[in-house]
Design a protein that fits this description.
There is one protein chain. It contains 3 helices and 21 strands. It is mostly beta strands. The longest helix has 16 residues.
């Protein structure tokens, strides 16, 4: 059982991508109750407050919702509440600002499509602004702007080898679509550097897409995928070295699968494996339920 924990790193993502995480101060978000976790952190600043959006997951229900945690400038937690819940599982709450609005493109592949949400009252009232059916329901959808176009990076559904080892792209002239899939999809097949894992950054003068290294384990590390060519007809990229959990993560050293820029901060998550009897019991119950169906 993977249990994730969020860290708020004092440092800009581009600098940390080049120099690593070991020297940067990190404020660790407190661990939750047993068999629950917060993961996939993305953040926005408003009125000297950091609003951190994350997947809130409970292994007993197997259903994720999006929570928002509010911190003051000293990174002291002030409040936590649910920002978005749907009948289907939600994770990876990719939040961003564009066109004078605040948007969220969470992963919701079990709904069968990608839904883009517009914020109507920050931070916990959102309305659907568009539902997009691509060449596959999008896993870890990552939105960015490049050369006058909107781009979407995502992984496909299917076996774990596809979810963890393939990168797809789509592009649009308008954020609300229509979206067109890239003719080279999957543009990348590599379990060590394909599944998106955070906000795109400028690294060394080039566009860099954080991607997960799942070659050893799911979400084992983050690599920055340096994009050398990106057009509606072309894609070329090269992956950098892995970013792994810092020593200060202590027992949470089994993985790192989100690397998200938030002004002068960077949001990460690290994981540990829970091999307790309770965790084994929950997993056995899940498997028995699956067999009975």
């Amino acid at each position: 059982m993977d249990i994730w924990r969020i860290g708020i790193v004092q440092g800009r993502a581009a600098d940390l991508a080049a120099g690593g995480l070991e020297a940067a101060p990190i404020a660790w978000v407190p661990e939750g109750p047993p068999f629950t976790f917060l993961a996939d952190p993305f953040g926005l600043w408003r009125d000297e407050r950091l609003f951190l959006f994350a997947e809130a997951y409970d292994y007993r229900t197997r259903h994720g919702v999006i929570d928002v945690l509010e911190f003051d400038r000293a990174l002291r937690l002030q409040a936590r509440r649910t920002a978005l819940s749907e009948p289907w599982h939600l994770s990876y709450p990719f939040v961003f600002e564009a066109d004078g609005e605040t948007w969220m493109a969470p992963e919701a592949h079990r709904s069968g499509a990608l839904t883009l949400y517009r914020c109507v009252e920050f931070p916990d009232r959102w309305e659907p602004a568009g539902r997009f059916e691509l060449d596959t329901p999008a896993i870890d959808p990552t939105v960015f702007r490049h050369d006058g176009l909107w781009w979407l990076g995502y992984s496909p559904t299917g076996p774990q080898s596809a979810k963890q080892g393939r990168l797809h792209l789509a592009w649009a002239k308008s954020l609300v679509g229509p979206w067109r899939t890239h003719p080279m999809n999957p543009v990348r097949i590599d379990r060590s550097s394909s599944r998106p894992g955070g906000t795109p950054i400028l690294a060394g003068g080039a566009l860099g897409l954080p991607v997960q290294d799942c070659s050893r384990t799911y979400g084992g590390a983050i690599r920055i995928l340096r994009i050398d060519a990106l057009t509606p007809d072309e894609f070329r990229a090269e992956a950098g070295p892995p970013l792994t959990p810092p020593v200060s993560a202590l027992d949470w050293k089994d993985g790192l699968h989100t690397f998200s820029a938030c002004d002068d901060l960077t949001l990460i998550d690290v994981k540990r494996k829970d091999r307790s009897l309770g965790a084994l019991g929950i997993e056995l119950g899940r498997r028995l339920g699956r067999w009975r169906r």
